[in-house]
Amino acid sequence: MSAKSKELEDAKKWLVILLEKATDAYFLSDLKGNFIDANKAAEEIIGYKKEELIGKNMLEINILPKDQIPKAIKRLAQHALGKSVTAEEFQLIKKDGSRASIEITGNILRLKDQALILGIFRNITKRKQKEKELIEINEQLKKFEKVAVGRELKMIELKKRIKELEEKLGQDK
Q: Which of 35, 46, 68, 112 would give a disulfide with 64, using CB separation of 3.0 to 4.6 Å?
């Protein structure tokens, strides 16, 4: 084996290790949305083994709710025009039927004169839940603040009226 092919082989091994150990999910698909490959993180998030995904179209295997499909088609069209796509939120239907919120980005790359999509996504379900909880807490605080401020204003008005009555009683003596 030549030094150059050994170097190439080593680089390939490192790339495989990096992709498999990555905490973000990676997948490769063609411009029509057919899966070519995926890493372990993708398997864990989606619940499917990559062997179950490879060769299947993401629009046809029930991993996207129906209302998310037009958004996915739009992204595929942008990729077909050679555009990378910024982060966007999607809902996924996992193999067990549960749902996950993900944030996904996509880039076009060329491999053997074929344009492919490198998709990178992460599960943001817990983050979305925490955001929802914070919004609910904020709404409760606003209601409490409104009640507390209203009560404080009533107390100020009551103290003012008591003072007026005391002054009036003092004058009547």
A: 68
Compute the distance between CA of residue 48 and CA of residue 61 in angstroms, rounded to an integer: 11
The DSSP annotation for 29-52 comes to EETT-BEEEE-HHHHHHH-S-HHH
pLDDT digits (tens, 9 = 90+) for 50-85: 999 999 999 889 999 999 999 999 999 999 998 888
**Main-chain dihedrals φ then ψ at residue 64, nearest 5 degrees:** -115, 130
Domain extent at residue 100: 3-123
The CATH number of whichever domain residue 42 belongs to comes to 3.30.450.20
Burial group, residue 95, by CB count within 10 angstroms (0-12, 13-18, 19+): middle
Q: How many domains, the chain?
A: 2
Tell how strand 85-93 and strand 35-38 pair up: unpaired
Q: Are residues 133 and 110 in the same domain?
A: no
Q: Are residues 40 and 70 in the same domain?
A: yes
- Residue 37 to residue 139: CA distance in whole angstroms: 44
Indicate whether 150 and 71 sit together in one domain.
Answer: no
Cα angle: 27, vertex 14, 86; to 5 degrees: 35
Residue pLDDT, tens place only, 102-111: 999 999 988 8
> Is the overall model pTM greater than 0.85, yes or no?
no
What would the two tokens of residue 97 be?
């039927």
